[in-house]
Amino acid sequence: MPYINAKISNKLTEEKMTELKAALGKAIEAIPGKTETYLMVAIEDGQNIWLAGDNSTPKAFFDVRILGKAKSEDYSRMTGVICRICSELLGIAAKDVYVTYSEYSEWGWNGSNL
Protein backbone atom coordinates (compact mmCIF):
# COMPACT_ATOMS: atom_id res chain seq x y z
CA MET A 1 0.00 0.00 0.00
CA PRO A 2 2.48 2.66 -1.04
CA TYR A 3 1.60 6.26 -1.85
CA ILE A 4 3.80 8.81 -3.62
CA ASN A 5 2.96 12.50 -3.74
CA ALA A 6 5.14 14.33 -6.26
CA LYS A 7 5.35 18.12 -6.25
CA ILE A 8 7.08 19.37 -9.39
CA SER A 9 7.92 22.97 -10.26
CA ASN A 10 7.73 22.28 -14.00
CA LYS A 11 4.36 22.32 -15.75
CA LEU A 12 3.92 18.84 -17.24
CA THR A 13 2.01 17.65 -20.27
CA GLU A 14 -0.44 14.77 -19.81
CA GLU A 15 2.05 12.56 -21.65
CA LYS A 16 4.87 13.55 -19.27
CA MET A 17 2.62 12.95 -16.23
CA THR A 18 1.79 9.47 -17.53
CA GLU A 19 5.50 8.77 -18.06
CA LEU A 20 6.29 9.99 -14.54
CA LYS A 21 3.51 7.84 -13.05
CA ALA A 22 4.83 4.79 -14.90
CA ALA A 23 8.42 5.48 -13.83
CA LEU A 24 7.35 5.82 -10.19
CA GLY A 25 5.45 2.54 -10.57
CA LYS A 26 8.76 0.87 -11.37
CA ALA A 27 10.71 2.90 -8.79
CA ILE A 28 8.59 1.64 -5.87
CA GLU A 29 10.05 -1.82 -6.50
CA ALA A 30 13.29 -0.51 -4.95
CA ILE A 31 11.54 -1.18 -1.65
CA PRO A 32 11.20 -4.95 -1.18
CA GLY A 33 7.61 -6.19 -1.28
CA LYS A 34 6.25 -3.01 -2.89
CA THR A 35 4.85 -2.96 -6.42
CA GLU A 36 2.69 -0.76 -8.59
CA THR A 37 -0.28 -3.08 -7.93
CA TYR A 38 -1.55 -0.98 -4.98
CA LEU A 39 0.52 2.17 -5.55
CA MET A 40 -1.36 5.46 -5.46
CA VAL A 41 0.42 8.40 -7.12
CA ALA A 42 -0.51 12.08 -6.93
CA ILE A 43 1.31 14.54 -9.16
CA GLU A 44 1.13 18.27 -8.49
CA ASP A 45 2.91 20.14 -11.26
CA GLY A 46 3.52 23.87 -11.70
CA GLN A 47 4.36 24.26 -8.01
CA ASN A 48 6.31 27.20 -6.62
CA ILE A 49 9.29 25.48 -4.99
CA TRP A 50 12.27 27.29 -3.51
CA LEU A 51 15.41 25.59 -2.25
CA ALA A 52 17.91 27.69 -0.31
CA GLY A 53 15.84 30.72 -1.29
CA ASP A 54 16.22 30.01 -5.02
CA ASN A 55 13.63 28.97 -7.60
CA SER A 56 15.58 29.80 -10.76
CA THR A 57 15.97 26.10 -11.66
CA PRO A 58 13.35 23.31 -11.67
CA LYS A 59 12.80 21.55 -8.35
CA ALA A 60 10.87 18.52 -7.07
CA PHE A 61 9.70 17.08 -3.76
CA PHE A 62 8.53 13.49 -3.30
CA ASP A 63 6.67 12.23 -0.24
CA VAL A 64 6.76 8.41 -0.16
CA ARG A 65 4.54 6.54 2.33
CA ILE A 66 4.41 2.81 2.90
CA LEU A 67 2.53 0.28 4.99
CA GLY A 68 5.11 -1.49 7.12
CA LYS A 69 8.83 -0.91 7.36
CA ALA A 70 11.82 -0.83 5.05
CA LYS A 71 15.57 -0.63 5.52
CA SER A 72 17.57 2.56 5.15
CA GLU A 73 19.42 1.12 2.15
CA ASP A 74 16.08 0.44 0.41
CA TYR A 75 15.08 4.07 0.85
CA SER A 76 18.51 5.21 -0.33
CA ARG A 77 18.15 3.06 -3.46
CA MET A 78 14.68 4.52 -4.08
CA THR A 79 16.02 8.07 -3.69
CA GLY A 80 18.64 7.30 -6.34
CA VAL A 81 15.96 6.00 -8.70
CA ILE A 82 13.73 9.04 -8.12
CA CYS A 83 16.65 11.41 -8.72
CA ARG A 84 17.50 9.57 -11.95
CA ILE A 85 13.86 9.83 -13.08
CA CYS A 86 13.89 13.56 -12.34
CA SER A 87 17.10 14.09 -14.29
CA GLU A 88 16.25 11.96 -17.31
CA LEU A 89 12.50 12.57 -17.59
CA LEU A 90 11.97 16.04 -16.11
CA GLY A 91 15.33 17.79 -16.51
CA ILE A 92 15.62 18.37 -12.75
CA ALA A 93 19.07 17.96 -11.21
CA ALA A 94 19.43 15.55 -8.28
CA LYS A 95 20.64 18.46 -6.12
CA ASP A 96 17.20 20.03 -6.59
CA VAL A 97 15.20 16.98 -5.46
CA TYR A 98 14.07 16.18 -1.92
CA VAL A 99 12.51 12.83 -0.96
CA THR A 100 10.89 11.95 2.38
CA TYR A 101 9.71 8.58 3.66
CA SER A 102 7.02 7.67 6.19
CA GLU A 103 6.11 4.24 7.54
CA TYR A 104 2.64 3.31 8.82
CA SER A 105 1.43 0.32 10.81
CA GLU A 106 -2.22 1.02 9.96
CA TRP A 107 -3.55 1.65 6.46
CA GLY A 108 -7.19 1.84 5.45
CA TRP A 109 -8.44 0.55 2.11
CA ASN A 110 -11.62 -0.84 0.67
CA GLY A 111 -13.72 -0.28 3.78
CA SER A 112 -11.33 -1.64 6.40
CA ASN A 113 -7.76 -1.49 7.66
CA LEU A 114 -5.01 -3.81 6.56
What is shown here, in short?
This protein is an alpha/beta fold. 29% of the residues lie in helices and 27% in strands.
Write the layout of secondary structure elements.
Blueprint: E1 3-8, H1 14-27, E2 40-44, E3 60-67, H2 72-90, E4 97-104, E5 108-109, E6 112-113
Parallel strand pairs: 1-2, 3-4
Antiparallel strand pairs: 1-3, 5-6
The residue ranges in which pLDDT falls below 50 over 5 or more consecutive positions are none
Elements, N to C (H/E): EHEEHEEE
The average pLDDT value, as a whole number, equals 97
| Most strands sheet | 4 strands, mixed
Keywords:
114 residues; four-stranded mixed beta sheet; two-stranded antiparallel sheet; 2 helices; 27% strand
Structure description:
This protein has helices at residues 14-27, 72-90; strands spanning 3-8, 40-44, 60-67, 97-104, 108-109, 112-113. The mean pLDDT is 97. Strand 5 and strand 6 form a beta hairpin. Helix 1 runs antiparallel to helix 2. The chain is globular, with a radius of gyration of 14 Å. The protein is of the alpha/beta class. 29% of the residues lie in helices and 27% in strands. The strands form two sheets. The chain has a four-stranded mixed beta sheet with strand order 2-1-3-4, with helices on one face.
